[in-house]
Specification:
Blueprint: H1 36-58, H2 65-72, H3 76-82, H4 86-109, H5 115-132, H6 134-141, H7 149-159, H8 178-197, H9 208-215, H10 231-255, H11 261-278, H12 280-293, H13 295-316, H14 323-346, H15 356-362
Helix pairs in contact: 1-2, 1-4, 1-6, 4-5, 4-7, 5-9, 5-10, 6-8, 10-11, 10-12, 10-13, 11-12, 11-15, 12-13, 12-14, 13-14
Length: about 375
């Protein structure tokens, strides 16, 4: 059967299974009590999971449809009722993985902080997410280039989602042009491809400083200046931006690891506590010293607090009946954390930091 054909047949109700192969998540024939939609959804998820695993392990060119079918435990007929061919199936995997990698970075870029600080945070989140999943990294930044014209088209569209990161609010003239923005995105894409293909995925977070120096160069004249009168406060804010970006990146990465919302919240709290325990000086600057340096520093600390609450609000929306209640719960969680950790952070006493259970209980999430 050819690799490509049009999808004119309606979705299978109960797809066949390759002879001699079963999977733990495979739906058996007979009276299973599932709707046709549930069956089709199960088949689709198995096919996508098989394509993801095989392409990440072997490369797109070395994965035939027959192997995907065997690995997924579906029939050839079912595969072609779901996807027109191998490339379309791969693109579905690619789009899902790119959404998982890009969405947290784009969310981390939001806020009122200076552009360079927001960019630093977003890059930290993106590099951390890519480094944490070498399979997704290979699919998105290596194999997508070899999959075919449809995959290249989708890749180009997905990468333009990063354009806002390289459009400073005060950019005018050539610094705000699409050509320079595209150049910045292209450089980032090329670096990711080079490092992932070279087997250095885990080391990507260490390249954030290099990326910041390179990617902000065309926009330096347009970057918003720090609004602080005092030179000491200006110097503090410069250092604070790096610290806050690192902290937000760690928490964002921790919140993305699990699918269970309660586990994600605990992971985020654990990341906060680990930051305080392993980086006592930076934690003190972020949570304690920022209160006394000056009004601009206090505003930046408040902005960081709001950003942390926004991050925790995402999983809380799955546990609370409304967005408003989720946001209030997130503010209570972050506020409780700051209250419980103020003294040990001020004294640089990691042994006195509260446990995850204590922070969660104080926020009435337990």
């Amino acid at each position: 059967m050819p690799e490509q054909r049009s999808r004119t047949a309606r979705p299978a109700l109960i797809g066949g299974v390759s002879a001699g192969r079963t999977r733990p998540d495979q739906i058996r024939g007979g009276n299973h009590g599932l709707t046709p939609e549930q069956v089709a959804s199960s088949q689709r998820e198995r096919v996508l999971a098989a394509m993801r695993e095989l392409v990440a392990g072997r490369g797109y060119q070395d994965v035939p449809v027959a192997e995907v079918i065997r690995h997924a435990g579906v029939s050839r007929k079912t595969f072609y009722e779901l996807y027109a061919g191998k490339e379309e199936c791969f693109v579905a995997v690619y789009e899902r993985e790119m959404e998982r990698l890009l969405a947290p970075a784009l969310q981390a870029f939001e806020g009122d902080e200076p552009w360079t600080d927001r960019l630093r945070t977003a890059l930290g989140v993106l590099l951390g997410a890519v480094a944490a999943d070498k399979d997704a990294a290979r699919i998105c930044f290596v194999e997508a280039l070899a999959a075919g014209p449809l995959a290249l088209e989708r890749r180009n569209a997905e990468m333009t989602r990063l354009d806002p990161l390289f459009a400073p609010p005060d950019a005018t003239g050539p610094t705000g042009s699409r050509a320079i923005t595209a150049g910045a995105v292209g450089y980032l894409s090329e670096l990711l491809n080079r490092e992932v293909a070279g087997g250095r995925t885990a080391q990507l977070p260490a390249l954030r400083s290099e990326l910041m120096a390179t990617l902000t160069l065309p926009f330096e004249a347009a970057a918003a200046p720090v609004t602080a009168d005092d030179a000491g406060e200006r110097a503090f804010l410069t250092a604070y931006g790096e610290i806050a970006a690192d902290l937000l990146g760690r928490v964002s990465a921790a919140l993305a690891i699990d699918t269970d919302p309660a586990a994600r919240i605990r992971g985020g709290v654990s990341a906060l506590l680990d930051f305080c325990a392993t980086e006592p000086d930076r934690a003190r600057a972020c949570f304690v010293e920022a209160l006394s340096v000056g009004p601009a520093a206090r505003d930046r600390r408040a902005a960081t607090t709001d950003r942390l609450a926004d991050l925790f609000a995402q999983p809380l929306r799955e546990l609370r009946p409304s967005d408003r209640i989720a946001q209030v719960s997130a503010l209570a969680l972050v506020g409780g954390f700051l209250e419980l950790t103020y003294d040990p952070v001020d004294r640089r006493a990691p042994a006195r930091l509260p446990s995850v259970d204590t922070v969660v209980a104080v926020a009435r999430l337990a």
